[in-house]
């Protein structure tokens, strides 16, 4: 965490590096739009980059990385929504998700910039990515009803404040990049 200022006298205010990266991404996108870069290009690059970054995080988790917690048991409570002592998904499961995310990134970029495949199939695939991300985003707000045990875990808050909004934002970006 970075100390960015004081919320009250003597209490430093912490700023997540992710907040700074998000701000940087917004500034870059605004600069690109100001430079005459088409909106769909900005959306394709931003969503493709974000999906690629999420794929990398899933590989990191599969290889045993502890972030965002300090230990594997904290990660299972924050990322998966299971109580301490539950096993974290296997390397294979993490790699499957990473491959799906990386494939989604490639599909979005190929649809926008031409990937040598059928334009109609690439477009359909990009819309499927937007649909799946949108379903994940909406489903995240219903998760506590389907899995009431998550309400007591850090996952519940993160799902509502980070995971679901991120999924919905990515769905909108992919859809925007796919529109003609």
From TrEMBL:
The keyword Glycosyltransferase does not apply. The keyword Membrane applies. InterPro entries: DUF3995. Coiled coil: none annotated. The chain crosses the membrane at residues 15-35, 42-61, 88-109, 162-179. Keywords: Membrane, Transmembrane, Transmembrane helix. This is Membrane protein. It comes from Sorangium cellulosum (strain So ce56). The lineage of its organism: Bacteria, Pseudomonadati, Myxococcota, Polyangia, Polyangiales.
């Amino acid at each position: 965490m970075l100390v960015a200022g004081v919320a009250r006298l003597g209490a430093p205010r912490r700023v997540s590096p992710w907040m700074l990266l998000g701000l940087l991404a917004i500034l870059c996108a605004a600069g690109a739009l100001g430079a005459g870069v088409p909106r769909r290009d900005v959306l394709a690059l931003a969503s493709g980059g974000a999906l690629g970054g999420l794929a990398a995080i899933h590989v990191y988790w599969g290889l045993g990385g502890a972030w965002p917690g300090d230990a594997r048991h904290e990660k299972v409570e924050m990322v998966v929504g299971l109580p301490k002592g539950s096993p974290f998904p296997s390397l294979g499961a993490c790699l499957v998700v990473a491959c799906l995310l990386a494939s989604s990134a490639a599909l979005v970029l190929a649809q926008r910039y031409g990937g040598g495949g059928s334009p109609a199939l690439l477009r359909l695939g990009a819309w499927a990515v937007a649909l799946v991300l949108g379903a994940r985003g909406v489903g995240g707000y219903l998760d506590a009803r389907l899995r009431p045990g998550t309400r007591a875990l850090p996952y519940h808050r993160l799902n509502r404040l980070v995971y679901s909004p991120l999924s919905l934002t990515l769905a909108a970006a992919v859809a925007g990049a796919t529109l003609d």
